[in-house]
Amino acid sequence: MPAPEVLAIAKKHADDKYAEGVNNDTIFGKWYGMNHQPWCAMFVSKCFADAGHADLVAASTKKGFASCDAGLKWFAKKGQVVPVGKAQAGDIAFFQFDDDAQADHVGIVQSNAKGILFVYEGNTSGDAKGSQSNGDGVFLKKRPYSLIMGVARPAWK
């Protein structure tokens, strides 16, 4: 399973304390072709693309997806959604922070520990005070299962 490659790329962005510029100006948005937009899904897509696995997240384009909702629906249609309790490193976690029926945020699972997922996320805040779905950087977050809308397992070769 090539998940370690994807995780190493996501970890490097977090370790480097990647921070966006003014008005969502990011390397992820520039790469995807949608700069100055919420970029959590573009972060996930670019991590997979940089590891040579863009095809595993090609929900909207060859590069991946920019919409959390589109990404989750694509994985569900392909039968790649797994129970949150079975989430493992390299899976993709979709979050629900409000009361609507659409995923609000997405990240790459680093590990799963009894009711908690540790997830690399872009476009989030480093603490609980800032926006969790439209923050300013890349962080390794600790998320309770209660915030998880769905977990997708890429179709690793």
Topology readout:
Blueprint: H1 3-15, H2 27-32, H3 40-50, H4 68-77, E1 81-82, E2 92-95, E3 105-113, E4 116-124, E5 137-144, E6 148-152
Antiparallel strand pairs: 1-6, 2-3, 2-6, 3-4, 4-5
Q: Any overview of this molecule?
A:
With 157 residues, the chain is of the alpha+beta class. Helix content is 25%, strand content 24%. It is built from four helices and six strands. The chain has a six-stranded antiparallel beta sheet. A hairpin with a 2-residue loop joins strand 3 (105-113) and strand 4.
In short:
This protein is of the alpha+beta class and 157 residues long. A six-stranded antiparallel sheet has the order 1-6-2-3-4-5. The protein is globular, with a radius of gyration of 14 Å.
Structural class: alpha+beta
The oligomeric state is single chain
Stretches where pLDDT is under 50 for at least 5 consecutive residues are none
Percentage of β-strand residues: 15-25%
Name the strands of the widest sheet in spatial order. 1-6-2-3-4-5
Radius of gyration: 14 Å
Secondary-structure element order, N to C = HHHHEEEEEE
Helix content: 25-40%
**Distance N terminus to C terminus?**
7 Å
pLDDT average, as an integer?
Answer: 94
Let me know the number of strands. 6
User: What gross morphology would you assign?
Assistant: globular
Number of helices: 4
Largest sheet: 6 strands, antiparallel
